[in-house]
Amino acid sequence: MRKRLDGGMGGTVVVTTTDQRERSQGGHSARHTDDHRRVICGPKDSPPLSCSCRRFGPAVCSVYAALRRGQARVPDGRAGKGGMRPSPLSEYQEQLLAHARAMSPGPPPPPWAAIPFLQAGGVLAGGWTQSDQVVLISSDGYSVSSPRTGERLVRDRDDARTMAALAPDNLSFLIPATGERISVFGVWGGDGSHSTADGWAVDVIYPWWPEADVLLWPPRGIGSRGYLDGASLLDGVGGATWRGCGFSPSGDCLMLLTSDGAHVYVR
Description:
By secondary structure, the chain is mostly beta strands. The chain folds into 2 domains: about 20-90, no CATH class; about 115-265, no CATH class. The chain is about 10% helix and about 30% strand. It is built from 4 helices and 18 strands. The protein has helices at about 20-25, 60-70, 90-100, 160-165, and strands at about 30-35, 40, 50, 60, 115, 120, 125-130, 135-140, 140-145, 150-155, 170-175, 180-185, 200-210, 210-215, 230-235, 240-245, 255-260, 260-265. The protein has a 6-stranded antiparallel beta sheet. Strands 5, 6, 16, 17 and 18 form a 5-stranded antiparallel beta sheet that branches. It has a 3-stranded antiparallel beta sheet with strand order 13-14-15, covered by helices on one side. Strand 9 (about 140-145) and strand 10 form a beta hairpin. It starts with 19 loop residues before the first helix and ends with a strand. Mean pLDDT is about 80; it is low at about 1-70 and about 70-80.
């Protein structure tokens, strides 16, 4: 399960608010931490804005409320002189961000299904063959796998041959075993296809930057009411460094690429 909290980057950040005394006198003061952030929740009678900590569930958090009101500050030295800059988001964008943060990750909607994770340490890039096979490129060679069974069809550990098969711009790869040239995406740039011919769509958002969230939509007609309407938040992306995502050439497979391998969904 992913643990995500409001706060800053670059180590633990302690946020102070105008109700410091009130919080120190009998508040529930539950302390939530992850690798990067810390939020100290305030008293139970705090303003009715929800803390977005998914691990501990909905809770009233005066720090989150104060941040939203612009009454919280980050101590000097943590976020630069002068404290935190005002949010540039409109009220609608704030609501959209809150909605995205409140979404729970889960399995893909039917008819999609996940196959076992394709693990490969130190993934740099990936792509698809024209027959929908998964290609993963790492600092230790490359592999070609079946998206439906996870079976590894090719594994070449020759890193020099692998690097030599990349185009000068690193956005295409000539598979040494087959001679097929494919487009790839990853640390060097590029991106996969984000839509299918029959209307399925995928997008990457960052409501908990720097972690990526991946949304999958079924076909939608023209004039859909809201950006997040009908979207499913896919599970399993957090923890590793994000590389990119894309549908296969047929549109029947979807790959979410991270530094430790590929999450693949098929229909």
